[in-house]
Amino acid sequence: APPEAADGRPGPGHEDFRPRIVPYYRDPNKPYKKVLRTRYIQTELGFHERLFVGVLTSKATLSTLAVAVNKTVAHHFPRLLYFTGLRSAKVPHGMALVAHGDERPIWLMYETMNYIHQHFGSDYDWFYIMQDDTYAQAEQVKALVTHLSINQDVYLGRAEEFIGGDEQARYCHGGFGYLLSRSLLLKLHPHLDSCRNEILSVRPDEWLGRCIIDFLGITCVSQLQGQHYRTYELAKNTEPEKEEEEDFQAALAVHPVSDMTLMYRLHKQFSRIQLDRVYQEIQDLQMQIRNLTALTPAGEAGVTWPVGINAPFLPKSRFEVISWDYFTEQHLFSCPDGSPKCELSGASKADVSEIIESAVEQLNRLYQPLLRFSKRQLLNGYRRFDPTRGMEYTLDLLLEAATQKGHSHVLAKRVSLVRPLSKVEIIPMPYVTEATRVQLVLPLTVQDLDFVANFLDMFAMNTLDTHDNALLTLLFIYHPYDAQRVGQVDVFAGVKAMVGELEKRYADVKIPWISVKTEVPSQVKLMDIVSKKHPVDTLFFLASVWTEINMEFLNRCRMNAISNWQVFFPVHFQEFNPALVYRGEQTASSNTDFLRDGHFDRHSFAEACFYNSDYMTARTKLAADILDRDEVLESMEIFDVFLHYSGLHLFRAVEPGLVQKYTLRSCNPRLSEELYHRCVLSNLEGLASRSHLAMALFEQEQANST
C-alpha cells in the first residue's frame, strides 16, 4: 500500500474516491435553455457495445463459405458485417454486406478499416476481423473480450514473423482472426492513408501488421492479461469428429476451412464439445450445492430438486395455489376457451410428446444395461407453470421393462420432470416516441346515441383541454331505413350539434364525420372506408363509445403500436352493474380509479392501436385470399386481419387506463356466430362477480321465502 502522510491522510498515489453532491446553479442573467437529452441513456452515460465482427469475403466464396459462416456463428455475435471488393454484389438472404468496389486485397483491407472506424468506431469497444474460411467459436470470442481491459491498445491474434523482417516484430495472421481494441483503431485511423502509400505487401494481414508496428509501435501478441488466443491449423482431409487433441478442443479459431460442409461439421463438433463442458459444469455445481447445503441449518433436507433450480413456489393462502392441468396423449382437460375438454394439438401436443420421450430416455439412462424401458401408454399426466422455476410435469407411465436375458414385465411408474426457465432475453424493439399524433376513430350506431355526450366530454377534457396531439373522426353508421329518411329526420342530428359546439369552443379543432349505410356494421368494411381517407403513416386508435379517453392510455397507444413491427389490442377494464354490486349502497368514489368493481373484458376486441400502412398491407393480403367473397368480412374483426394476414407482433395486454362504465351492449344477430357469441358472453360476464351474483340470488330467495 502507498505510504501515508504524517497527519494520517492518504499519501501520494492513493486516490480516495468519495461521492460529492454538485449543487445545481443557473445564472439568472442568462436565458433558460432547454437541455436536450439523448435518445438512449447508454449514450448519455458513454456506454459502448461490446463486440463488432467483420468478415472478409470474396466473389468466389460469398455464396458458399460466407453463407456457412452466417448460418453457424453469425447469430451468436451482436453485430456482424461482411466486406467484399465486388461491385453491386448479390447479397444472400439474411446477410449484411458492404461492397467496396475494388477486389485488390490491400485496398479491401484499407477500405474495411476506414469503414469500421467511420461507422462503428464510437459505438464498440472491440473489433474482431476474420476471413470467411475461418471457423471462430463465437461464445469463446465473446468471453475473451469480457476479460480484457478496454484501456489498453490491443492487437491480439496468432502472431507470425514477417518474411525477412525484424525478429521481434509480429503480425496477426488473418486466417485465424485477430482482435483490435477501440483505442488502437482510433490511433491507427490517421495513419491509414500513409500506410496505403508507403507500405508494399501482398498479404493484407501483413500490411495491417506493418502499419500498426511502424506508426504505433505495437506488435501482435497471442497472450495478453492472462488470456490466450488459441488457434488450430487444419490439415488436409481432416475429420473434425475424430479430432481429440486438446489444442483443437481449446481453439478459438480454426483455419483453413475449405468448404461449406467442413464448416458445418466443425460447428457440430464444437457445439458438442461445448455442450459436454456445460453438462460437466452443471454436475460440478450441483455437487458443490449438495456439499454446501449439508452445512446449512436445514441440512441435507434443504436440497431442492432438481439441484440448482429454484424451489417450488410456496403459496401463502389458498388463492395463491397454482393448479395442475390434467392431460392425456390425446386430450387436454384445461382448455384456453374454458371448455372442460379439448383435443391436444399444436405446441401442447409437441410438448407432451417431448416430455414423455425425455422421461423414458432418462429412465433408460439410469437403469441400463440391467433394464430397458419402452412406453406402453400414458396413464395420467399433470403439468403446471411455476413462474419461479418453469414448467413442472408429473407423469404416470405404463412401461414395459426388458432384462438382459430377454424377460419382460409391464409396470406403472410415476416420474416428475421440470422444464426450467432458461436465460431471459430482452427482445430488441424499434425506437418510438410519445409525440406521435393519434387519430381516434369512433364508430356510432343508433343504439350508441345515449353515450356519445359522455364520450365527447371526456375527449374534450382529457385531450383538447390538455392540448394532446390527438384528433377525432366520427363514423355514423346509418341503417338503410334511417338513411332513406335522413332528409326529414336525421338520427345523428344531436351528435352533429354537439360536434358543432365543440368546434366553436375550440377554434383550431375540426372533428370530421363519415356517413355509412349498412345493415351489418362489419369492423373491417368500416375500417376500409376510414383507411382510404387518411395518410399511410397515420396512427389509428379504434375506440368504442363507452371508452373514457385519457392521456395515460394515449401515450401507451403511441408506445405499443410500432409501424411495421407491432399492433396493440388493449383489454379494457369493464365495470360491473352497480345495481348488482352495490345494491343501493354508496358507489365507490371516483378517486379509486382502478379499484372500482369490475373485470378485464377479454371477449372484446373493439379497441385497437395500429398504423394505417400496416393495416393496408394486411388488407391487401386478405383481399388476395378471399377474392370477391366480401361476405367473409362480416365474420372477421380487425384483430383477425392482423393475426392471419400480417407478420407483425400482436400485443394483447390488460389496460388499466382504459375504463368503461357498465352498459348492456346490443349484440347484432346478423354478425357471425362467433362474434355474436363473444358479445353475449361479454354482457353476461360483465354483470357482476360470482360473489355478487350469489349474494343477489340469496337476497332474492330470502325475499321470495318471506
From TrEMBL:
Highest taxon in the source lineage: Eukaryota
Gene name of the record: Chpf2
Bilayer disposition of the protein: Single-pass type II membrane protein
EC number in record: 2.4.1.-
Transmembrane segments annotated in the record for this chain: none
Subcellular location: Golgi apparatus, Golgi stack membrane
Main location: Golgi
GO cellular component, one term: Golgi cisterna membrane
Family according to the record: Belongs to the chondroitin N-acetylgalactosaminyltransferase family.
Protein name from the UniProt record: Hexosyltransferase
Swiss-Prot/TrEMBL keywords: Glycoprotein, Golgi apparatus, Membrane, Signal-anchor, Transferase, Transmembrane, Transmembrane helix
A Pfam family hit: CHGN
Gene Ontology MF annotations: glucuronosyl-N-acetylgalactosaminyl-proteoglycan 4-beta-N-acetylgalactosaminyltransferase activity; N-acetylgalactosaminyl-proteoglycan 3-beta-glucuronosyltransferase activity
InterPro entries: Chond_GalNAc, CS_glycosyltransferase
Keyword Membrane: yes
